[in-house]
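Problem: given the chain below (301 residues), write out its structure.
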Amino acid sequence: MRIGIDLGGTKIEAIALAVDGTEAVRRRIATPQSYTDTISALASLVHEVESEAGERCSVGVGIPGAITAATGVVKNANSTWLIGHPLASDLERALERAVRVMNDADCFTLSEATDGAAAGAPSVFGVILGTGVGGGIVVNGTCLQGPNLIAGEWGHNPLPWPADHERPGPECYCGKRGCIETWLSGPGFARDHATHANRTMTSHQIVSAWQAGDARARDSMERYTHRLARALATVINVLDPHVIVLGGGMSNIPDLATSVGRLLPNWVFSDSVQTTVVGNSHGDSSGVRGAAWLWPHVEYW
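Solution.
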């Protein structure tokens, strides 16, 4: 069996997958807010899952950041207590086996490319539209990371083809302005609605109002959909993936994938657009399933 772990800022989720991808065990615990306690919690969780599964398993972990190749330590993690620590090697020492660690957006993409909405596609771009905006790339079943470990990080490119009222764009935590993340994240969507509608609502409330026929919410949804289509058009122009899979909380907007797909021909540099935009199959479980699939062959552990 394979164990996959999703190491989040507030919870750690683990599953054990059988060879055919069937879920055998699932566990969830609160995330400790210190590095040492996090390593201990991860090791204990693995042993607990293995005890119920009845066998020793391979272990893959999805984290909100990346392991720097040169130093082996965590970078770019919003769970800041992980930054600067050799999480992979420390966990391998605690578990006495090899462990594979990858960014959680990459794990989401791998999950959907393996046995999800993009199963069988030669190339897949996975999109995270949540509190932040991230992405991952899978080609022929393998995650592409790149020498800087930022492959797929489209959220920190500028919003393409901006209108005058979209310049210079909101400030981003990365230090720049107008990043895609500042427009297409859940908080960015809510901020844009507050600016134009002169009322503060959560992203869920805006979507509910749109479904109820509210005109201002409808306008906010149209701006969001057009911005998402523009942003994804640049991904297609560079990467030309066979499938784009939407994930994260904003991907739950009804018919979002279909609406975006209809708009893409306005910006993609082609006489037709063959890339398919789809919603995900595994929802919130995609990341943890993808972590398990970091070991494509269980005998490798």
